[in-house]
Amino acid sequence: MNLKKTIVYGASTLGLVAVLAACGGSDAGEQTPSGLGLTKLGAFTHQGGEGSAEITAYDAASKKLFVVNGAVASLDVLNLSNPAKPELLKSITMASLWADAGAANSVAVHQGMVALAVQAIDKTKPGRLIVLRASDYAILGTAVVGALPDMVTFTPDGKTLLLANEGEPNSYGASDSVDPEGSISVVDVSALTLSSANVTLAAKTADFKSFNTQKDALIASGVRIYGPGASVAQDLEPEYITVSADGKTAYVTLQENNALAIVDVATAKVTSIKPLGYKDHSLAGNGLDASDKDNAVNIKTWPVLGMYLPDAIASYSVAGQTYLITANEGDARADWPGYNEEERVKDLTLSPALEAFKSDAQLGRLNVTTSLGAVNGVYEKLYAYGTRSFSIWNAQGQQVFDSGDQLEQLTKDLPQAKFNASHSDNKQDDRSDNKGPEPEGVIVAQFGQKHYAFIGLERIGGVMVYDVSQPSRPVYETYINTRSGATGDLGPEGMHFVAADKSPNGKPLLVVGNEVSGTTVIYQINLKY
To answer: Which terminus of the chain faces fewer neighbouring Cβ atoms within 10 Å, N or C?
Structure first.
């Protein structure tokens, strides 16, 4: 891959992670840029501290920005008429919309309609889709959806809403344990208008019940189904959704399961489950820094397999073909009451070949899963969480590109943050033993004939920008980061793209919710010709 172009730092640039995977940008007929840069325009600090700025969405007609505030279970509404000076207009509590509401987890906007994915106070109970009018926040419609709706998105035509219902358990093996089934809710909102009044909407459910009899075959194919006593439908946990440009097909990450579900939108049916496989970190270009105790930047190959375990997913089209981009964050079922799959390598019984790498300065501190790799209690293979990369896949779930070790290579010499620092401190190597820079989000924007992917890094912060116009040969464009040690914009969690023709200042924008610092930041995309 081409590693040309720039790395930019400082208060006038960008730190972000995408949780809203989307396609966006200008019409393919406009002038095609040669590159782009980003400039920080303004920011808003929310009330509530950590968790107060998460997912964002913008309504062009009202020039309002909607921000999920998880710290106080509200939806904060900002005036974005002047993107350099966003101002709070209103904070809407979820309890005022639904008596049994917990937090909102996601927000999406289409032509004056604001869709919220809201979990119940008891996350194992059904959640709600709540659709508001952007102008006055009146409820236009609601629908009962699956347990723990974690993400909501419109189809491109705005006629359908899809929600990823994660269905996390509250525990395993206890008398009061509840493990809801994961699912995707498909809600027809074509009859909903801005004059509707609290319409009860019907949600179709794309579930995984039909796969319950295929458990052994799915596991053999590489799908991780491992919750104690869980059926396939209970174990699969939808995380994030992207929809094809024609609105017919949805692609859903099953993060903990290291798999992708493909959904037919019209019939609300899961048509297939695709295992994503494993990344071989022993191959040149696939290295990683595996230790937080080696006192050095030490990106090298190791006898480790990486589980992609993607969070966000985005889709885009090239020459009539759909491609998918995943941010391979990694996620463990750790510290669940009754189950914990995460362990450090040095605490396992290892084969002789792996025993040689057991010291803390090598693989000893690396977090791996206990659910894979053991034969008669002896670990012959090691499977780590996430792959510290982004990947591009075709519409059948076959990988056409992976960024290898580039995200760590490109963040090893930052002036404002130490290598593999966490989002809450500035300690070198703090995350080397656990997912490194932790790519969590991705968004794709099109300008003319070019497609750019923005890859957000949850821990070290900032965003990598790649030209992905040739899916098998992405070109690195730039990296931008605005943290300053343990201060600044920390823990970016959600991003929304605003195209130039919808933007309040006529320029394309990126809006970022930073979870740890509680700041929503507005950045301008500056196209180069």
So the answer is: C
Beta-sheet strand order (sheet of 160-165): 149-154, 160-165, 183-188, 203-206
CATH number, domain with residue 201: 2.130.10.10
Whether the predicted model's global pTM rises above the 0.90 cut: yes
In a domain, 1, yes or no: no
3-state secondary structure of 377: coil
Sign of CA dihedral 89, 93, 97, 102: positive
Residue 313's nearest CA partner among 400, 252, 268, 264 is 252
The series of mean pLDDT values per 10 residues for the chain, 529 residues long, is 46 33 48 93 94 95 97 97 98 98 97 98 98 98 98 98 98 96 98 98 98 98 97 98 98 98 98 98 98 95 98 96 98 92 98 97 98 98 98 98 98 94 94 96 93 92 92 94 90 88 96 90 94
CB within 8 A of 406, min separation 6: which ones?
A: 1, 3, 389, 464, 476
Alpha-carbon distance of 341 to 331, in angstroms, equals 11
Helix (H, G, I), strand (E, B) or coil at 359: coil
Element (H, E) at 62: none
Answer yes or no: is 199 within a domain.
Answer: yes
Instruction: Say how many domains are in the chain.
Output: 1
CA 91, 95, 97, 103 torsion: positive or negative? positive
The pLDDT value recorded for residue 523 is 92
SS3 track for 120-172: ECCCCCEEEEEEEECCCCCEEEEEEEEECEEEEEECCCCCEEEEEECCCCCCC
The CB density around residue 295, as the number of other CB atoms within 10 Å, is 10
Please say whether the beta carbons of 183 and 162 come within 8 A.
Answer: no
pLDDT value of position 12: 34
> What count of Cα atoms within 13 Å lies in the side-chain half-sphere of residue 198?
3
Give the domain extent around 482: 6-528
DSSP 471-486: TTS-EEEEEEE--BTT
For residue 446, being part of any structural domain is answered with yes
